[in-house]
Specification:
- Helices cover about 40% and strands about 15% of the residues.
- Helix 1 crosses helix 8, helix 2 packs across helix 3 and helix 3 runs parallel beside helix 5.
- With about 350 residues, the chain is an alpha/beta fold.
Length: about 350
């Protein structure tokens, strides 16, 4: 019998990659979003998860074997992040239950802010030692990831489904209009440096430039989601998920510069946020897009410098342990430089960069 999946946030970086993998694997895939786009093999489901009744109506008749929650809405404060994002998860799971469609497995994608704290307290105060391991407890701060988890845990106990929580580091993948999109942000930044002759300047901290770090390719995360949903030993567990390699930005920055043919500016330890470097670039990007016939002339829909600055400006080394998944049989590996290069090729093929 064909398995059925519901992907929540199907138009995002993680959701679209997961949908593509499940379609390839023969699943029947439904993709939920407020404004679903077209994706091959995916049946769109339009729903605003803040509307409980509308969500239940949109989910009527769906009985997914697995639900993949890959979305969130950024708010102006962590208190609002908690209220809004917990409500979205609650309405989703209540809506499925109301229509007799409770899933067998629910996977929730969060991230390393589980260990680092929310944006309001990002990388501040007392933090767990790296590499981050899943057994490290929650921080003593409010965090919408914890609120999302608690909604899943409560519904699982009520309805009897298994769950998994997936904690990626910064995700590399394609999605236009995404609020957290380092790969495309760096591609656009490098393109404008090449256009203007500006040096390709690392925007972040000395700790990030010199320290070890890792990242998560969207395809790697999709494989991990599918693995956990179909592996009994992975049920009711939280997992870190990264590519499997480690690197220093002092090396990766040069690799990215070489791909775009731009010159790297010497790094002297001064933080120069991309939000400042790119503050006046919207008109320049529109000119480049018009001249090159690009698909998206709106810089704000491609680049998310605020989020890239948050990641690259952290004052600590961030490395993630994958032992828990490895011991249970997940062995997939993705070199991070190759993940960047594959994304850049796709952006070029899709006429998002010249």
């Amino acid at each position: 019998m064909t398995k059925q999946a519901l992907i929540v946030g199907a138009s995002g970086i993680v959701g679209s990659a997961t949908a593509a993998l499940l379609v390839e694997q023969g699943w029947q895939v439904h993709g939920l979003a407020r404004r679903p786009g077209e994706q091959q093999g995916v049946t769109p489901v339009a729903a605003d998860l803040l509307d409980a009744a509308g969500t239940a109506t949109a989910l009527a008749g769906l009985r997914p074997d697995a639900v993949f929650i890959t979305t969130w809405l950024r708010q102006d404060s962590e208190a609002e992040n908690i209220r809004v994002n917990a409500t979205m998860v609650r309405n989703l799971l209540d809506g499925l239950r109301a229509n007799d469609g409770a899933a067998r497995h629910v996977a929730l994608v969060t991230g390393l802010k589980h260990y680092l704290g929310p944006f309001e307290a990002y990388g501040k105060g007392t933090l767990p030692q790296t590499p981050f391991r899943e057994e490290q407890g929650r921080l003593d701060v409010e965090n919408f990831y914890y609120a999302q988890e608690d909604e899943v845990f409560a519904a699982a106990e009520r309805d009897g489904f298994s769950w998994s929580v997936h904690r990626p580091h910064t995700v590399i993948g394609k999605a236009v209009g995404n609020a957290m999109n380092m790969g495309t942000t760096l591609a656009v930044y490098a393109t404008m440096c090449r256009e203007t002759g500006r040096p390709f300047r690392f925007p972040g901290s000395a700790a990030q430039w010199n320290g070890l770090t890792d990242m998560t390719d969207a395809g790697q995360l999709a494989r991990h989601l599918l693995w956990a949903a179909t592996t009994p030993a992975a049920a009711n567990e939280a997992f870190n998920i990264v590519n499997g390699d480690v690197f220093r930005w002092s090396w990766m920055w040069q690799r990215i510069a070489d791909w775009f043919g731009v010159e790297v500016a010497p790094f002297d330890g001064t933080v120069m946020p991309l939000e400042q470097q790119m503050a006046d670039d919207a008109n320049l990007w529109r000119e480049i897009a018009t001249r090159e016939g690009l698909a998206e002339p709106d810089l704000a829909r491609l680049a998310s410098p605020w989020h890239t600055d948050a990641d690259l400006g952290r004052p600590i080394e961030v490395v993630t342990d994958m032992s828990k998944s490895r011991k249970l049989g997940f062995t997939a590996y993705q070199p991070t430089d190759d993940a960047f290069f594959a994304l850049f090729e796709r952006l070029r093929a899709d006429r998002l960069i010249p």
